Amino acid sequence: MKYTSFAIALIFFGYLNGVQGKTYYVDVNAASGGNGNSWKRAFNNLEDALTAVKNGKGSSGDQIWIAKGTYKPTSPTQPNLATFNLPGNVLILGGFKGTESSVLERGICDPNKTILSGDLLDNDGANIKSDNAYHVLTADNVQNVLLNCFSVKNGHAAGTDLGQVSGPPDRRLVSIDYTNAAGAGLLVRHQSNITLSQVNFSYNSVDSSQATIRTNPALGNPAGASGGAAIAAIDENTTVTVIGSSFENNTCGGFGCNGGALNAMLESSFKVFLSQFKNNSADRNGGAIRGKDAHDLEVYASSFENNIITGGSIGDESGGAIGAINSNIKVESSYFKQNASSFTAGGGAIFFHSTFDDSEPYVLNVGNSTFENNSGGYIGGGAINISANNINPATKAVISNNTLSNNVAIGVGGAIYADIVP
User: How far apart, in whole angstroms, are the C-alpha atoms of residue 34 and residue 52?
Assistant: First the structure.
């Protein structure tokens, strides 16, 4: 924990040192009519503060301080489309009591004090999610955004999407015009750059049943762009950095849904440090993290426990913790325990696959990590499955200085299965 706090402090105060802008205050219990200039005159909703930063063009590095409480986005038209639209060049901090005059007075961050929720009508307890927000947060073409000390929960991305898929044989996702079937907690698009520190994502969900982007009729038309119940990153040069955060009980359901917590598509990237992934699930690929035609998935000093794949009708439902197709993966000093693929597939913890040669080489690099009690199915690889159909000759896997124990597979390779990838 002390290393986590130290790393977060470095990032956090690195942002603060460069900030010269204005601070806006938000308190859900404040009286209406506030101008956000102090705790006594605080905005009583987050949207007013986000709008104030946007109207100031966000060029000076403004801050938003948010007091404890639960905050929900609103929409004047369709409730499902309500979302907190994040501006650029802003530091957004939660966990305040509502009396502090400096960030140091906030003390140790407790993400559960300030909650950003998609349960717009407070009826999730009755298992009614059809009226929840598709995306609790949205970052669209914004840079230099830092969120610190929040819980993000109860987003439910169950809408439609629209995009283009290439023809056979590849049937590759080419573009996404819009999506309401990905990124229930946070949707990040169009070259956005966002950092999350000490942010907990829980009970966010995706349902792909209404998604219209479908990839392969021969496999029953599984969803092609649905997933990332906590965070979905889309488009080239979009990067999400996650530090000291947790992802728990996020689910990606519906035929072909990918990425129980995180989903990277169309050359986007995730960089994950000192974070925890527990009890997340997806139907097809990547119970916790999935990348398809992504740029980089980097994971450092993080843990994955009991993340699972729930589908099985296609036969390739793999990667209980991490699943990547035509994407680079780097995992360093991390821990994988009791993650599982479907019984039909493999890669109980990690699945690295190249479906075709798109002229780019891909690299799997796993080092100094521990794998125990993970399980794979008939395709093999209780801990790691490395496989390909038609690959670039420079694609490779480097597995070094790891500890593997008590991993099992129904098929070959109780610990590791590798076919033609060198």
Answer: 12
Omega into 169 within 30° of 0, i.e. cis?
Answer: yes
The DSSP bridge pattern shows strands 173-179 and 114-117 to be unpaired
Q: Rounded CA gap, 227 and 319, in Å?
A: 14
**32, HSE (Cβ side, Cα atoms, 13 Å):** 0
Q: What is the 3-state secondary structure (H, E, C) of 149-175?
A: EEEEECCEECCCEEEEECCCCCCCEEE
* pLDDT tens-digit readout, 119-150: 999 998 878 899 999 999 999 999 999 999 99
Closest CA relative to residue 64, chosen from 78, 40, 45, 81: 45
Nearest CA among 24, 21, 23, 22 for reference residue 44:
24
Name which of 373, 372, 371, 365 is nearest 399 in CA terms.
365
Global pTM reads 0.94
Phi, psi of 153, rounded to the nearest 5 degrees: -150, 160
Read off the pLDDT of residues 312-329 as tens digits, 9 standing for 90 and up: 888 889 999 999 988 999
Q: Which pair of tokens denotes residue 113?
A: 């004090």
